[in-house]
Design a protein that fits this description.
The protein is an alpha/beta fold. It has five helices and eleven strands, in the order E-E-E-E-H-H-E-E-H-E-H-E-H-E-E-E.
């Protein structure tokens, strides 16, 4: 029986002056041929706010120092379960911020050892490139969200985006959930 852990995450859509979003690419970490993209961000430390977690995660994963006040409000939320193996299930709630930044080359110095193995590359991707790879974005598709944020104002309330992460099934290995377009605006 797998152990279930609740996890609250802060994620940041870092977008440069050419409307490209920064995503981390992973290949073969979860298994041969398994690849995916992840936004900067991750789990909150005990007692940490979403904003403080977002600032810490961006710095640890990219070397970029950002100001929590510049993050603005949460633009999207998603929730669901995922696992990285048969022994642990993570019940996660992820909140997304959107932030414009000057293009930079991420520095990997602050990555945890496991993240150094997992993230094989940092890629700045256009909305079209994200749309082409959207089924591989963990834990939820972000192409429609990114396009709406690039084309218009930030939403008055966070958008709810469908969960799309993977879980471990002992009979079938890695399984994905059905993915749907953004549910509401």
């Amino acid at each position: 029986m797998a152990n279930t852990v609740r996890r609250r995450c802060a994620r940041v859509l870092l977008v440069d002056e050419d409307d490209r979003v920064l995503l981390f690419h992973s290949r073969d970490y979860m298994g041969p041929g398994v690849e995916y993209y992840v936004t900067p961000g991750g789990g909150l430390d005990a007692g940490e706010s979403l904003e403080a977690g977002a600032v810490r995660e961006v710095f640890e994963e990219t070397g970029l120092r950002i100001d929590a006040a510049a993050l603005g409000p949460v633009v999207a939320e998603t929730a669901g379960i995922w696992s990285d193996g048969p022994d642990l299930v993570i019940d996660s709630e992820d909140s997304y911020f959107f932030m414009r930044v000057a293009h930079f080359t991420p520095v990997r110095d602050g990555l945890e050892a496991i993240e150094r193995e997992e993230f094989t590359a940092a890629k700045w991707m256009t909305a079209a490139e994200v749309a082409a790879a959207d089924a591989l974005v963990f834990p939820a598709r972000i192409a429609s969200l990114l396009t709406s944020l690039l084309d218009g104002p930030r939403p008055a309330a966070p958008l709810r985006i469908p969960w799309g992460a993977w879980t471990w099934d002992t009979d079938r290995g890695w399984t994905t959930t059905e993915r749907a377009p953004i549910l509401d605006r």
